[in-house]
Amino acid sequence: MGKGGNQGEGGPEREAPIPTFSWEEIQKHNLRTDKWLVVDRKVYNITKWSSRHPGGHRVIGHYAGEDATDAFRAFHPNLHFVQKFMKPLLIGELAPDEPSQDRGKNSQITEDFRALRKTAEDMNLFKTNHLFFLLHLAHIVVMESIAWFIVSYFGNGWIPTLVTAFILATSQAQAGWLQHDYGHLSVYKKSRWNHIVHKFVIGHLKGASANWWNHRHFQHHAKPNIFHKDPDVNMLHVFVLGEWQPIEYGRKKLRYLPYNHQHEYFFLIGPPLLIPMYFQYQIIMTMIVRKDWVDLAWAISYYARFFMTYSPFYGILGALLFLNFIRFLESHWFVWVTQMNHIVMEIDREPYRDWFSSQLAATCNVEQSFFNDWFSGHLNFQIEHHLFPTMPRHNFHKIAPLVKSLCAKHSIKYQEKPLLRALMDIVGSLKKSGQLWLDAYLHK
């Protein structure tokens, strides 16, 4: 229960002591209609304000009843700027006899990680090389130009069409990695400029929604691979992931699909359909339902540019089919790259770990090479990216050795694989989960 002091009788007027709370009391406030969280031992009531949170009400609510210090620092590069929003929400602080970490989280790992983050700041690893991203944007524009030149010079035959589609799928994938950078605020520290550039890249170059991506992706970073908190592991009963979910489905005799064959039908449902069907529909409907007219206008500019460019060669219907074929190719690229770092890792209910341990449990790396860096948009450094989501990707290789040392110190496994092994592990993990489901399903 909160504790406070009384003003002495007849004495001079003094400011009332700030209330103090125990972890037991704070943890009770983890409901949708009642949310407290702790940052640097200060207790904040975010219940009403969460609906106005720029990152969405869900991502901030995922830490209700917990210490959110490291997540807060990870997502907010300008701490001074956000303090003005936090001050009215302050309701007290942790009692002096309470530990800084809740639920027995490892305080030594937390202390060492914060020292590592301070080292990264001292090394200027959060400073952006703007030329790097400008050149990346330029190479996307060059690919778009080459694609148009091929179809305009060689015509709309099968070979030029296939070559053009492959180039455009490549430019779309690379634009996806670039918007991912802007979305994490790693390029411009002034949010106004970052939002404009992000909306241009994801909206005009890809036809998607910046707000949709932010609200979905930041949840993934806050609680990666946690059911009901990470939208990326919400497979809508199409797949069962990890170890807990397939056993739970099996015990409850849930059989929406033959999950013991999910490693086979993955090739028919996952890579080919995610972007052209599920994401495309979800993005458009989200913008309309939420009345996000700015993002919708950016997306419309993409479609207008695409059809104005390619309708003269293919007609309206042909251009529509061409667009979906491009997204069919891009979808394969996107699914394999994004899943190789997460789907093979621990996927479970909330384990309540410290920030460092939770990110290492949910992510793995792919070996560095020029091709792997380009092919994955530096998401081969998924561990470093999850630990420091606002760090520009060109600095991941600099902090990686220090992350490995911290893992070694605390006997935490730092997983790094060759690219082909990482891709094969996706299928292997689906097969393993499917077998767990079958065993539980058949068990009487």
From TrEMBL:
> How is this protein situated with respect to the membrane?
Multi-pass membrane protein
One GO cellular component term of this record is: endoplasmic reticulum membrane
Cellular localisation = Endoplasmic reticulum membrane
Keywords, comma-separated and alphabetical: Fatty acid biosynthesis, Fatty acid metabolism, Lipid biosynthesis, Lipid metabolism, Membrane, Oxidoreductase, Transmembrane, Transmembrane helix
Principal location listed in the UniProt entry: endoplasmic reticulum
* Protein origin, superkingdom: Eukaryota
- According to its UniProt record, the EC number is 1.14.19.3
Residue span(s) of domain Cytochrome b5 heme-binding: 18-95
Q: Which PROSITE patterns does the record cross-reference, listed alphabetically?
A: CYTOCHROME_B5_2 (PS50255)
What the entry lists under InterPro entries is as follows: Cyt_B5-like_heme/steroid-bd (IPR001199), Cyt_B5-like_heme/steroid_sf (IPR036400), FA_desaturase_dom (IPR005804), Fatty_acid_desaturase (IPR012171)
The chemistry this enzyme catalyses reads: (11Z,14Z,17Z)-eicosatrienoyl-CoA + 2 Fe(II)-[cytochrome b5] + O2 + 2 H(+) = (8Z,11Z,14Z,17Z)-eicosatetraenoyl-CoA + 2 Fe(III)-[cytochrome b5] + 2 H2O; (9Z,12Z,15Z,18Z,21Z)-tetracosapentaenoyl-CoA + 2 Fe(II)-[cytochrome b5] + O2 + 2 H(+) = (6Z,9Z,12Z,15Z,18Z,21Z)-tetracosahexaenoyl-CoA + 2 Fe(III)-[cytochrome b5] + 2 H2O; (9Z,12Z)-octadecadienoyl-CoA + 2 Fe(II)-[cytochrome b5] + O2 + 2 H(+) = (6Z,9Z,12Z)-octadecatrienoyl-CoA + 2 Fe(III)-[cytochrome b5] + 2 H2O; (9Z,12Z,15Z)-octadecatrienoyl-CoA + 2 Fe(II)-[cytochrome b5] + O2 + 2 H(+) = (6Z,9Z,12Z,15Z)-octadecatetraenoyl-CoA + 2 Fe(III)-[cytochrome b5] + 2 H2O
| UniProt cross-references to SMART domains, sorted A to Z | Cyt-b5 (SM01117)
Could you list the residue ranges that cross the membrane? Answer: 131-151, 265-283, 303-326
Q: Which PANTHER family match?
A: ACYL-COA 6-DESATURASE, FATTY ACID DESATURASE 2
The name this protein goes by in its record: Acyl-CoA 6-desaturase
UniProt source species: Chrysochloris asiatica (Cape golden mole)
Gene label: FADS2
